[in-house]
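Figure 6 in text form: structure in, sequence out.
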């Protein structure tokens, strides 16, 4: 063997050779010490999700070309994933952990549905168009229900 190969460490070797301080950084921090989302911080993200749904409906209304519809679904997917990242950056508190997890799940599922819808339009697959469109509608409606539930004035 060459000297470079014989000196290479396995993953386990690097893990056991890691400093104790680095390993402690993996330990879960106290949830109450972290600044996490409150209902007021989550509302703009839910409002933005409603805006994404309205924007998607506007882009697809009256559009006939499958390429334009596929692009609209891809844009919708990208916008939903941006919202997902925004809510994940808020952190987690014990009080809003369930709400945040539910929103993230619906955003991820809606983005996946938009991907299926986009590929259905691109490859002219009626099954994928129906499946993706229905799933996208379901998850956007669920986000809308969360929005009205978190709004005390509604």
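Output sequence:
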């Amino acid at each position: 063997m060459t000297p470079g190969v014989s000196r290479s460490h396995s993953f386990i070797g690097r893990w056991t050779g890691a400093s104790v301080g680095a390993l402690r950084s993996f330990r879960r921090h106290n949830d109450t010490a972290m600044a996490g989302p409150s209902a007021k911080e989550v509302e703009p993200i839910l409002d933005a999700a409603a805006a994404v749904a309205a924007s998607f409906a506007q882009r697809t209304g009256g559009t006939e070309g499958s390429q334009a519809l596929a692009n609209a679904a891809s844009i919708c997917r990208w916008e939903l994933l941006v919202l997902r990242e925004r809510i994940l950056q808020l952190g987690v508190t014990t009080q809003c952990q369930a709400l945040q997890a539910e929103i993230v799940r619906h955003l991820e599922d809606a983005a996946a549905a938009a991907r299926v819808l986009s590929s259905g339009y691109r490859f002219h697959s009626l099954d994928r168009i129906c499946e993706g469109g229905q799933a996208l509608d379901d998850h956007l409606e669920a986000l809308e229900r969360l929005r009205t539930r978190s709004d005390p004035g509604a």
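Caption detail: Residues 103 and 123 are 30 Å apart (CA to CA).
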